[in-house]
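INFO  loader      accepted 1 record
INFO  loader      residues=144
INFO  predictor   begin
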Amino acid sequence: MRYRVAMKWIATCILVGGTLSIGCAFASEGDRIAQMSEAYRNGTERDRLLICIDAIDKGLICRGCHVGTMDRIFSTRFSTPDGGAKGYDALYKGVVHFRDEDPRPKETGADATSAASPTKGWYLAFRYTENGSIYDYQLSDLSK
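INFO  predictor   done
INFO  writer      dumping tokens
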């Protein structure tokens, strides 16, 4: 009888301890995401790129991860998909530009052209499913 009581007590301790450690892991991940989000808002293009790479290294951005995590890090709204962003492959597309704006001066007057200027700087391009699961992603600094 004592053996059964002891085993139940040990199993309960392991279960509660495991639950507590899992809860702590989620809290630390939430704190990490909040820190990344704050650093991203205040960072330069290079800082933002490094934050993105860190999020990829930590498994916060990965194939199969939810796009909502990216929303929290980059302050975006991809988890509420726009029907117009859906491609022919039935996947939604998203881009996070790490540069705030083009540093070149804007042309005005008669010299201004109506042609679109290419996007410069680092960005994260990705595709995701209707349920918010990241299908694929890529980092690039090529002009679009």
